[in-house]
Amino acid sequence: MTKPKVLISDALSPAAVQIFRDRGIEVDFQPNLGKDKDKLAEIIGNYDGLAIRSATKATAKILEKAAKLKVIGRAGIGVDNVEIPAATAKGIIVMNTPFGNSITTAEHAITLMLALAREIPQADASTQAGKWEKNRFMGVEITGKVLGVVGCGNIGSIVADRGLGLRMKVIAFDPFLSPERAKDIGVEKVELDDLLKRADFITLHTPLTDKTRNIIDAAAIAKMKKGVRLINCARGGLVDEQAVVDALNSKHIAGAAFDVFVEEPATSNVLFGHPNVICTPHLGASTTEAQENVALQVAEQMSDYLLTGAISNAVNFPSITAEEAPKLKPFIALAEKLGSFAGQLTESGILKVQITYEGHVAEMKIKAITSAVLSGLLRPMLGEINVVSAPVVAKERGMEIDEIVRAAQSDYESLITVTVTTERQERSVSGTVYADGKPRLVDIKGIRVDAEFGKSMIYVTNEDKPGFIGKFASLLGDAKINIATFHLGRVAPGSDAIALIEVDGAVPADLLTKVQALPQVKQVKALTF
Ligand SMILES: NC(=O)c1ccc[n+]([C@@H]2O[C@H](COP(=O)([O-])OP(=O)(O)OC[C@H]3O[C@@H](n4cnc5c(N)ncnc54)[C@H](O)[C@@H]3O)[C@@H](O)[C@H]2O)c1
Ligand SMILES: O=C(O)[C@H](O)COP(=O)(O)O
Fold first, then answer.
1. Beta bridge partners of 524
2. Comparing C-alpha atoms, which of 48, 1, 56 is closest to residue 28?
3. Ligand nearest to the CA of 77
4. What is one Gene Ontology biological process annotated in the Swiss-Prot or TrEMBL record (predicted)?
């Protein structure tokens, strides 16, 4: 087996390189490549994995060239530099390391708050310039002040904790923060307007979304206390930078500290040069500890996925642990094949896909199995699709996806039934995995069979009348097609029957025409798995 190949295109800790090598993955460490999008586009096609921080922009244009790419690993939290829909559409898993730099970033926010309170950078510059301006720098105390945390997730809650440690009163606005969690972490949950009105220091810790873009604009600033100090260590775009400059000029805001900017790298910005502004170049996550954490974690996660199929911290696919991956694997293979069987027999638009999980399989990660059914189902129609992209494509096509989970209703320990409703008909197919780990087809349209999925198969529905098998077999013999396995099923003597035949090699179209012409035959189809 050839080794998977990973490109590291940003300044990750070299610890990641070692992990990839130790896990048997070939790795190219090009820490400055993220800044050169043309070069990245030129070489991305050679890699199975891409490990990045925030400098690399994994745009749809770059991803177009990523023919082999299976996973993008973000050594950090924000994945706003990756076009997730484009990655998902190409079946690329996008994973991040959601906790590795939280403490470090929270500490940066607290550092900026203290620096604002005592004007440390300004006092440092003045002192080192030989000015000794003891009367110019009059700070404010932190103790007893109100800290307003906007976004109280991983980082926001650590900031809140540190704020409480500094004897501040901490209030938080976060629509997804439960009252119990607020109580546990010792913050008062408030509405945004209340926070704006009461806080002496406001610190932002939300992702940048359509709802949070410019959450701090001129109108929000107008509601703030005079003399408030503002810290943004989350994402550029949460704050209207010009509105902050205006409020600093009018002294409504006493000071602002920014680690992140609307345009990055920020080599010029309206905030720059204001005496009450402190800026750092997106250093929130930049400590040795955090960088080691995220680099190690992303390299392990990417290696797990490339080598075992285990998925953790993916933003576009459910997690699958290393323990679950081998158990899921045969069911994912079964699901792909059941979906593929249904897809190859489908001739009109799919309206609904119902997947019923019975027995042991019902206790597994069925989301992943459902994705595999959809990928198998859609591939005959769409070609380029996989378990990551299939659910999105199915949704885009307006298909209704229904999952039913229930205890075993038959002798099978586990049974998956895929029922596809099209504009013309409803078709059901069931399968299981035997102890040998091989997927088996056990029911087609309510007719029991027991067949493995061969590479090349012929599926026939016919009237159960004597003479069919002899004529069919001689047509195959005339065409020099060797039969590998032959499975028959019927509901009752004389009723509708099916035949599922595995053959060696491809099935020629003219053979299908001849089989179709047999008097007992209703439908014949060549299937490949
Ligand atoms: N400066 C840096 O270097 C740096 C480092 C790490 C993370 N970050 C950024 O910090 C931010 C927070 O990261 P995190 O790990 O704490 O994320 P998180 O997902 O754990 O927390 C985000 C919180 O924001 C809340 N939220 C979502 N929409 C909101 C809204 N409209 N109003 C108020 N709250 C809302 C969520 O409920 C959640 O609790 C992210 O933007 C991340 O990219 C920056
Ligand atoms: O989202 C993050 O993790 C931070 O913004 C850190 O970004 P960086 O890895 O580019 O420092």
1. 460
2. 48
3. 2
4. L-serine biosynthetic process
The DSSP output letter for 45 is G
How much is the average pLDDT of 393-398? 88
Catalytic, 181? Answer no
Q: What is the pLDDT of residues 14-55, one digit of tens each?
A: 999 999 999 999 999 999 999 899 999 999 999 999 999 999
Amino acid at 227: G
Which of 27, 56, 54 shows the shortest CA–CA distance to 41? 56
Tell me the CB-side half-sphere exposure of residue 157, using CA atoms within 13 A: 15
Ligand 2 touching residue 77 (CB < 6 A): yes
User: Separation of 140 CA from ligand 2 center, angstroms?
Assistant: 30
Q: Where are the beta strands (DSSP E) in 36-190?
A: 49-52, 71-74, 93-95, 146-150, 169-173, 188-189
Q: Select from 13, 52, 53, 103 the residue to mutate for testing ligand 2; criterion: most ligand atoms less than 8 Å from CB.
A: 53
Closest C-alpha to 522, from 498, 494, 490, 491: 498
pLDDT band, very low/low/confident/very high, at 381 (cuts 50, 70, 90): confident
CB 284 near ligand 2, within 6 Å: yes
* Most distant CA atoms of the chain, gap in Å: 108
Cα 238 from Cα 25, distance rounded (Å)? 39
Q: Beta-carbon neighbour count of residue 136 at 10 Å?
A: 11
Confidence of residue 168 (pLDDT cuts 50, 70, 90): very high
> What are phi and psi for residue 107, nearest 5 degrees?
-65, -35
CA 359 to ligand 2 centroid distance, Å: 43
Tokens of 115: 């620096």
User: For 126, phi and psi rounded to 5 degrees?
Assistant: -65, -45
ipTM exceeds 0.95, yes or no: yes
pLDDT at 8: 98
pLDDT mean over 412-421: 96
Residue 149 pLDDT > 90, yes or no? yes
Cis check: omega of the bond before 265, within 30 degrees of 0: yes
Using alpha carbons only, how large is the chain's radius of gyration in Å? 30
Residue identified by tokens 């926001």 is: 156
Section 479-495 average pLDDT: 83
Q: How far is the CA of 11 from the centre of ligand 1 (A)?
A: 23
Phi, psi of 270 (to 5 degrees): -60, -25
Token pair 């905030």 is found at 271
Question: Which helix (H) or strand (E) covers residue 134, if one does?
Answer: none
List, as one string, the DSSP characters of 342-378: HHHH--S-EEEEEEEEEEGGGGS-HHHHHHHHHHHHH
Give every strand in the sheet of 456-463, ordered side by side.
Answer: 483-490, 496-503, 456-463, 521-528
Owner of token pair 């503002």: 230
